[in-house]
Amino acid sequence: PAPARRGRRRGRLAAWLFVFPALLLLGALVVYPVLFSIGRSFFDASGTQFVGGDNYTEMFRDPATLKAIRNTAIWVVVAPTLLTGLGLILAVLVEKVRWATAFKLLLFMPMAVSFLAAGIIFRLAYDEDPDKGVLNAAVVSVHDAFKDASTYPTARGRAGLLTQDRDGSYRTTASAGGSVALPMVGVLPKDLPADASPARAAAERKAAPGELRGVVYLDFTPGGGGRQGKVDAGESGLPGMKVEAVRDGRTVASATTAADGSFRFAGLRDGSYTVKLPAANFAPPYQGVSWLGPALVTPAIIGAYLWIWTGFAMVLIGAGLSALPRDALEAARMDGANEWQIFRRITVPLLAPVLTVVFVTLVINVLKVFDLVYVIAPGPVQEDATVLATQMWLVSFGGGNDQGLGSALGVLLLLLVIPAMVFNVRRFRNSQR
């Protein structure tokens, strides 16, 4: 009937009136920019000359863009895989924790932190200076717990009195039954160990037959004065120095200096010896790992990404885990299956649809990652860490000023994201059915 048709038309008109503002915004904020970028990708940097597919061919010839594509591939393979695996493991383990809700909240909290703030946090955490970067502070602490650090990294032998070898060690010669003094410079008095004592008395001791005595001291008299190469009153010994006696290219004795810098080799045969201060005495302190160097910058940024998104993956997978049929799990336990067998043969297969959705969602997110890479990677290694999103920005606005090539990169990024989006949409529709 005519009244019914008029009612349906009015209903459709009302629906379109309600939908129109959303469609207008969608067109202005999504459709128009996409179409404009596609069109802009066929023009040169100035936007006035049509160049056809030149931007797309240039895109695959540019070494920086190829590196961005390689890094993006690493992100797509590594980050979603690790996140999905971590989320699955944590979701299963959290079920067995008494304070499960608090634990989930703790892991999900990084999602409330913006990528910019997270980037600044991890930029500081990855700082190479152990006094600033918490990761290197931990690494240096563990390293120094198992390997003693050099006490005198700035020390050097007095020129003309000690000979420096290529490996950084210092040497002089002495004979059994004699004494030798090894003058050092380059150590500030305030940097001396607390137990360091004056070396004058040690330098005056006489050696017995078959014995070689010596003293390693700081050849500097506080307040000025003193003689170079002579142990003057007030000059301090350097405790903890390793000293070796070498003969015919072989170390025959070794000692460590006492508080007054003295050392003693006993039981030596008559003859001349090389008294050597090994290079380990002067090795610079261990400074940790160069987290933001060219080799580790991409894994380091992926680590920051994992910190943010692990809670997201855990919560989604946990929701799927709570919906699993418990009778299947209990039946498997009744049949004698252990927890690992239940996890591998029942839990994971039943969670496969959820795991797939989480993985694909993370792939879409990873393809668009920009903030973390731009903030964490220092300027000198920015090119080593760049991904497609950052490369698109750098080419267009970060100094390249070539919006044509930048638009081509944007189109490439869109083409990579669309298949994953289509797959996710189909998954959602199938789950609703």
Structure notes:
- The mean pLDDT is 88.
- The chain has three domains: 1-40; 44-135 and 291-432, Orthogonal Bundle (MetI-like fold), CATH 1.10.3720; 156-282, no CATH class.
- The protein has helices spanning 2-40, 54-59, 63-94, 100-108, 115-125, 134-146, 200-204, 297-322, 326-334, 339-367, 371-376, 382-385, 388-396, 403-432, and strands spanning 156-157, 163-164, 170-175, 179-185, 212-218, 242-247, 250-256, 262-265, 272-277.
- 53% of the residues lie in helices and 11% in strands.
- It is of the alpha+beta class and 433 residues long.
- The relative contact order is 0.14.
- The protein is built from 14 helices and nine strands.
- It has a five-stranded antiparallel beta sheet, with no helix packed on it. The chain has a four-stranded mixed beta sheet with strand order 1-4-5-8, with no helix packed on it.
- The two termini are 34 Å apart.
In brief:
By secondary structure, the chain is an alpha+beta fold. It has 14 helices and 9 strands.
Number of DSSP E strands: 9
How would you spell out the order of helices and strands?
Answer: HHHHHHEEEEHEEEEEHHHHHHH
Shape type: elongated
CATH topology of the largest domain: MetI-like fold
Biggest sheet character: 5 strands, antiparallel
SSE layout:
Elements: H1 2-40, H2 54-59, H3 63-94, H4 100-108, H5 115-125, H6 134-146, E1 156-157, E2 163-164, E3 170-175, E4 179-185, H7 200-204, E5 212-218, E6 242-247, E7 250-256, E8 262-265, E9 272-277, H8 297-322, H9 326-334, H10 339-367, H11 371-376, H12 382-385, H13 388-396, H14 403-432
Parallel strand pairs: 4-5
Antiparallel strand pairs: 1-4, 2-3, 3-9, 5-8, 6-7, 6-9
Helix pairs in contact: 1-14, 3-8, 3-10, 4-8, 8-10, 9-10, 10-14, 13-14
